[in-house]
Design goal:
Helix content of chain B: 25-40%
CATH class of the largest domain in chain B: Alpha Beta
Number of helices of chain A: 5
Largest sheet of chain A: 5 strands, antiparallel
Number of domains of chain A: 2
Shape of chain B: globular
Distance between the termini of chain A: 48 Å
CATH class of the largest domain in chain A: Alpha Beta
CATH superfamily of the largest domain in chain A: ACT domain
Distance between the termini of chain B: 68 Å
Helix content of chain A: 25-40%
Largest sheet of chain B: 6 strands, parallel
Strand content of chain B: 15-25%
Radius of gyration of chain B: 27 Å
CATH topology of the largest domain in chain A: Alpha-Beta Plaits
Low-confidence stretches of chain B: 1-68
Mean pLDDT of chain A: 89
Number of domains of chain B: 4
Radius of gyration of chain A: 20 Å
CATH topology of the largest domain in chain B: Rossmann fold
CATH superfamily of the largest domain in chain B: Thiamin diphosphate (ThDP)-binding fold, Pyr/PP domains
Strand content of chain A: 35-45%
CATH architecture of the largest domain in chain B: 3-Layer(aba) Sandwich
Oligomer: heterodimer
Number of strands of chain A: 9
């Protein structure tokens, strides 16, 4: 059965790493729903959150293929774990004076913030679980979505367990190895 | 080879040293003074000589400061040094604009450069060299078209797990990304067809990168690695420091298997009544032929070979069954159907070996030994995966398995032979049948030559009938199926193993792709014997059109030159064989004639390779020319 999987991929922060990861997933016919990349808690290590669709066997294969990339340090499938997966959205909603109150009320219901307004539009920022963002968007569609930007999910497992690029002896030493040449 | 002086020791006074290498001036050393003296080292006025590249200074006593003033080299010279440090003695390549500075350094390098006639042949020659010698094959090319011409060869090495290192030139750094003359993003292009690749951006990275490239190419599951170096780095200078292996946390190949899995594999082998080995290329890559033979002989388990696994166990041995899969022998595919245990050592369950996966070894429990964890369960569901180096795994297994014989099972397999075909094979017709040519070459060379094939019908005839008894003398493009592979691979093998007899077995189609390598053979003064099986067709495609497309021969008729005259034009010997009677004398003459020889064998235009498993069918659904009742 195909379903959405959330993968955390810890990679060395080198030029071209994103290209390698995406190229590999494309080549092996995996469908990426979203991908986010940013720094992790360790210098020189980036954290990717990849939401990808496939059977459990497909995703296991994707993980093994990712491990074959030199820069990939750790791959974790968070799919069946208690996890917080949040994304951020900025949306520009059509709202003239008569709709403004209603839009604001919806924004409030979702703990969304108003970033900007114009006579015809309101710009709203929302952060939260992906389903919640979807619901908010659903509510706002009635007014007309003029512009939409979403980050895709970033995820972290609940509780005290941590995902790191296990095996690194220390961030400083790691960063030093590249500079030592 | 000599790059000039050994590291010099000098006194506390800074010195400027000039040196000549082969008559060419080379600035060495630069000027160094102790940091303790409070002076700053003067640097050469080059963009690349930075603080980091200066040699470490060590303090002596009483103001005597010893300096280890190393040699300053250009990036091009450093490439050569780094290759020498890896024990490289041969590189295959083709010069061009971006690598002119690199080629400037080659005459002083400690290895021999073989000029091929096309960059793709350089990559494939490096591939053939690597397969024949077990060493890393090296090829080099210029930027842009030179680099893109390597791509097919790299993809070939990638799919067949062959250790190859490619060095390409890139345009000067300020022009990268500006669509400069002969610029192309070769690291981007080769991303999916290399094990790893690099664009070097600093001169001090050249030596460590080349070091790592060789390590990656040959360790774990071998494969091609490309190192792209901008021209501006070739002409920069720095103090040469031998590259050291950097710790790569993201690359830790598993060579030692999990003992629990090994025990499960051994148990399965001890219990099985109808077991079969599937012998793959991994056995050869791991140098595990002897370990494998010991295991085969102790367990009494018969061996089916993948195309690239041939040579991993002597085919003349009673327990060796022969080729499996699309053009496998009937009894081998029947045995796979019937087996209750299949032990795959170092093969990746390629579709040409398995046929339709759901129909592959349907009654067998699958044990899969592979060094690449991603291969486990990729194509075929595995009951007992063992991740590790084939040799390590086999050496552990041999102590855990029972000594057994499987006489009944083997005589059943034997009974599944296609006796009608066997009888037909013994009948020699007037024109030499393709398999008789293969058998004659095998007999004349006593199976001891290196055989490089092209891709197509002749390749399958060779795989079926050469009777390969020795490791690493069977060079064939398995995964990628690269036409044109035969001659360049033979060139690579002959240059790597000059004392061995080397035969290229080609079709008239593939040979016409790479026949310009005849010039390389002449220039290098090497003896390659080339058998061209000429049927005037692109035979394998014609065969598929014959069998599966209602004989609709679309664009498969191919003419060619007069191969004998062609050979003579290149300055080598050409022989044409049209009748069976000429066959043996021609092979004899080819072997006795010094230098490269082209032997053209005119064969029946519409001869097919039998048996054949139609694409998408199970191995059990193979088609035969002559079927037993």
């Amino acid at each position: 059965m195909k379903r959405q999987h959330t993968l955390i991929v810890m990679v060395e922060d080198h030029p071209g790493v994103l290209n390698r990861v995406v190229s590999l997933l494309r080549r092996r016919s995996f469908n990426i729903d979203s991908i986010t990349v940013g720094h992790s808690e360790q210098t020189g290590v980036s954290r990717m959150t990849i939401v990808v669709r496939g059977t459990d066997a497909d995703i296991e294969q994707a993980g093994k293929q990712l491990y074959k990339l030199m820069e990939v340090l750790k791959v974790v499938d968070l799919t069946d774990q208690p996890v917080i997966a949040h994304e951020m959205m900025i949306v520009k909603v059509a709202a003239k004076a008569q709709q403004r109150q209603e839009v604001l009320l919806i924004a409030q219901m979702f703990n969304a913030r108003v970033l900007d307004a114009s006579p015809n539009t309101i710009m709203i920022e929302a952060t939260g679980p992906v389903e919640q963002i979807e619901s908010l968007l659903q509510m706002l569609r009635a007014f007309g979505i003029r512009e939409l930007a979403r980050t895709g999910a970033i995820a972290m497992s609940k509780g005290s367990g941590i995902i790191t690029s296990k095996g690194l002896t220390g961030a400083d030493q790691y960063a030093g190895s590249a500079a030592a040449d | 080879m000599c790059w000039g002086p050994q590291p010099l020791k000098s006194g506390s006074k800074s010195k400027e040293i000039k040196h000549r290498v082969n008559g060419l001036p080379a600035i060495l050393g630069g000027r160094f003074t102790s940091r303790d003296n409070g002076t700053v080292a003067e640097k050469e006025q080059t963009m690349a000589t930075t603080e980091a590249t200066l040699p470490k200074l060590s303090n002596g006593l009483n103001g005597h400061i010893e300096e280890i003033a190393a040699v300053e080299l250009t990036g091009a010279e450093i490439v050569c040094k780094a290759l020498e440090a890896e024990g490289v003695d041969i590189v295959f390549g083709y010069p061009g604009g971006a690598v002119i500075p690199l080629y400037d350094a080659l005459p002083r390098a400690g290895f021999h450069h073989v000029l091929t006639r096309f960059e793709q042949w350089a990559a494939l020659a490096a591939d053939g060299y690597a397969r024949a010698t077990g060493k890393v094959g090296v090829c080099m090319a210029t930027s842009g078209p030179g680099a893109t011409n390597l791509v097919t060869g790299l993809a070939n090495a990638q799919l067949d797990s062959v250790p190859v290192v490619a060095i390409t030139g890139q345009v000067v750094q300020p022009l990268i990304g500006k669509d400069a003359f002969q610029e192309c993003d070769i690291t981007g292009i080769t991303l999916p067809v290399t094990k790893h690749n690099y664009l070097v951006t600093r001169i001090q990275d050249i030596a460590p990168t080349i070091k790592e490239a060789f390590y990656l190419a040959k360790s774990g599951r071998p494969g091609p690695v490309l190192v792209d170096i901008p021209k501006s780095l070739f002409v920069s200078r720095m103090i040469y420091k031998p590259g050291k292996l950097r710790d790569r946390r993201g690359y830790q190949p598993t060579t030692s298997p999990n003992m629990r899995q090994v025990k499960l594999a051994a148990e399965a082998m001890n219990k099985a009544e109808k077991p079969i080995f599937m012998a793959g290329h991994g056995i050869l890559l791991s140098g595990a032929e002897e370990s494998f033979a010991a295991l085969v002989e102790k367990t009494g388990i018969p061996v089916a070979f993948t195309l690239l696994g041939q040579g991993s166990y002597p085919e003349s041995q009673p327990l060796a069954l022969g080729l499996m899969g699309m053009h496998g022998h009937r009894e081998v595919n029947k045995a796979l159907d019937e087996a209750d245990l299949l032990v795959n050592i170092g093969a990746r369950f390629d579709d040409r070996a398995t046929g339709k996966v759901s129909g592959f070894a349907p009654n067998a429990k699958i044990v899969h030994v592979d060094i690449d964890p991603a291969e486990i369960g990729k194509n075929v569901e595995t009951k007992v995966p063992v991740v590790g180096d084939a040799k390590e795994v086999l050496d552990l297994l041999v102590d855990l398995v029972d000594e057994r014989r499987h006489d009944e099972w083997i005589s059943w397999i034997e009974s599944q032979r296609n006796f009608v075909l066997e009888a037909a094979l013994e009948d020699r017709p007037e024109t030499p049948e393709p398999y008789t040519i293969i058998k004659a070459i095998a007999e004349a060379t006593r199976g001891k030559a290196i055989y490089a094939t092209d891709v197509g019908q002749h390749q399958m005839w060779a795989a079926q009938h050469l009777g390969l008894d020795h490791p690493n003398n069977w060079l064939t493009s398995g995964g990628l199926g690269t036409m044109g592979y035969g001659l360049p691979a033979a060139v690579g093998a002959k240059i790597g193993c000059p004392d061995k007899e080397v035969w290229a077995i080609c079709g008239d189609g593939g040979f016409q792709m790479s026949l310009n390598e005849l010039a390389t053979c002449v220039q290098e003064g090497i003896d390659v014997k080339i058998a061209v099986l000429n049927n005037g067709y692109l035979g394998m495609v014609r065969q598929w059109q014959d069998l599966f497309h209602g004989k609709n021969y679309s664009e498969v008729k191919i003419n060619g030159p007069d191969f004998v005259k062609l050979a003579e034009a290149y300055g080598v010997t050409g022989i044409r064989v049209e009748t069976d009677a000429e066959l043996l004398p021609a092979i004899q003459r080819a072997r006795e004639t010094p230098g490269t020889v082209v032997v053209e064998f005119i064969i029946e235009p519409e001869a097919n390779v039998w048996p054949i498993v139609p694409q998408g069918a199970s191995n059990s659904e193979m088609l035969h020319q002559y079927e037993d009742k």
